[in-house]
Structures are given as structure tokens and as C-alpha cells.
Fold this protein.
Amino acid sequence: MMRAVAKLTTTLGCLLCASSALAQVPGTKLPNGSITPDWTGVWERAQGIRFNPTNELPPFTPAYAARYEKAMAARARGEVIADPTSRCLPQGMPRFMVASYPLEILQTAKQVTIIAEWSSQVRRIFTDGRKAPPDDEVEITFNGYSVGRWEGQTLVVETNGLRGDTSFDATPLEHSDQIKVSERIRQIDANTLEEVMTVTDPVAFTKPWVVTRRFKRGGPDLQIMEYVCEENNREIILPNQIRKP
Amino acid sequence: MISLRTSLLLCGLSLAAPALAHHSANMFDPSKQVVLEATVKEFQWSNPHIWIQVMVPNAKGVEEEWSIEGGSPNLVGRQGWKRNSFKPGEKVSITIRPLRNGDPGGSFVSAAFPDGRKLGNGAGVLPAAGAKEAPAY
């Protein structure tokens, strides 16, 4: 009888241990001992596929505003404007964070990795304390060079090394190769992340462009699918190709 | 036997298309819808877009191949489509938004099968007429 009670107690104890372990949100323990929030999992955009959910245009310089108006006029005439992604080129940053298809976040102490389902793109945000290479040396890439740090429960990310030939979304919103992106990502409730992006571009913009986007935690059945854009791309539109209506 | 009906649609039909990936939808005419009484030739369950190749008799009764473009498997798969949703030889009534240039093709709107099965919008390459969503991606 005593043995049975002891066994039951042990079993209950183990169950309690297990449930309290499950109840904890593990986060990532940083070298300084602080615990970050845990965003590991799949997230979906909570807004549309325009880069700026308010649809407000960036603070274009007159030259870039004119380019935008010209492209929009062509579109209104029914012409097809080339979007680099129609050739299956990566969306690049900051369009990556529009999350046209879901994003998966993976966290470790030294890196936050974001996998975009769209074309299976990967962003590495280094949180190991390194400094970004200087602007004139950094490799120029689609997703740039991202260095992050945790300010309390907010992930702060600075990205340089971005290409000038990506667009913010499928509308003809252009920028130059002087673009840089700062992000502040924080969790605003159990299932929502909010990201405030500040985009600077001294060539294309007259001042920083601040855009806020939100992401919802994916449901239990949501998993990242394969997406190989080159598989059957029948609608390739080259940059210098205008299709008349 | 003309099996093609063209109808102009008013804006604001309940075609709540979600975001679609990859390319401009400007090659399609958002103001028109065409219903094709078709026979499935091939279903391409592929990225970046699915394609339904169908045979449709033209005004002279000659079979013509149409290319119907939809969303990606990632999009329509999450709306219940399967890689065998269209089977070769199957009869189907497909509503599309046609290509502006008159070529036999269009953007998928919906499909109705003889057994009553229906596949909805969400796969089209255009958002709802009048929708706030960007008309391209």
C-alpha cells in the first residue's frame, strides 16, 4: 500500500513537472541571462500585400515620384509592368517582411532565422553582438546584412547591404541602392507580432518612411510548404519588356 | 455549338480574393467574365501558379486549348484544393477573367462540376473587382 502511494506520488510529481515545463514559454536565454520572448513558429501577415497597410506612399523625392506616376499611368493603360519576382527573383528586404505567404521564425541565442515560404527564402538576423560590415564593404544582397539586438522584449534589427533593384510590393514603388531598414519587432498579445519598419533612402526619399505591419500566429495545422518559383513559371516578364494590352 | 458565354460584371461581386503571388494581373481583363464549358486536358499543380489546361469548342465547333491560371498550390491548397482536383477528361464549367489580348486563356474565378462539386475563387490571379488589395503580385 505504501509502495503504491509512493508510486502514485512520483507519477503525479512527474506529471506536474511535465505540465509546468510545457506551460513555460521557453524563449531564448541570452548570454546576459535575460530571457527573450519565444516567437518560434509559423506566422501569417495580418494585412494585405501592399508594403504599407495604410496604402500611403513613401516620401518620394520629385524624381522618384515622377517615376512612380509614369509607371502607374502605364498600368492604368493596361500595360504589364515588370516586377522582378515575375522572373522568380527573390522579393528581397524589406518586401520579405510583407509575408505574402507565411513566415517561420526560428530562434537561437546567437541568431534569429526567418524562413519565407514564398520562394523558400531565408533571412539571418545575427544577435551575437557583431557589428555589420561598413556600407562600402558589405556584400550587396537581396536580403541584406541584418544585425539584431534584444532591447528588453523587443527585437531591434538594422539591415544594410541591400540591392537597389527590388520593389516594396507589386506596385511600382521603387527605391535606390542607398536603402537601409531598421525594424522593431515586439509581441503585442499572445498571438500577434507588431513590426515597425523605418526605411531610409537618401536618394529616393525626402525623409524616413515608417511602416507598421502585424503578423498573426499560425494555427496548429499551418506548416511551411515548398515553393519553387522556377518550377513552372509561364509568365516571365523581363524588366525591359512592356506588354501592351 | 458555341459554348462560350461572355458577360460583363459589375463591381463589388463577392469574390473576396486573397493575396496572390508572383506577377502582375494586368494581362487579364477585370471587367469581364467568361464561362467555359470545358473538358479538362491537364492540371498543372505547380508553382508559382497552378494551370488548368482545358479543351473548349470554338464558334465553329473546333476544339481549342485554353490555359487557365490560378494561385499557387500554397494558396489554393490551404483552401481545400488537391493536386487531383481537376482530372483529365472531366467535364467542368469554368468561369475566368479572360486575357485582354484575346488569346485563349484567363484567370481562374470558379469551377462547377457536373456532380455539384464547386471550387471557389481564391485561386484567381485578380482580386475582387473594386477590392483594395493591390491588383498584382
Notes: The longest strand of chain A covers residues 180-189. The helical segments of chain A are 2-23, 62-76.
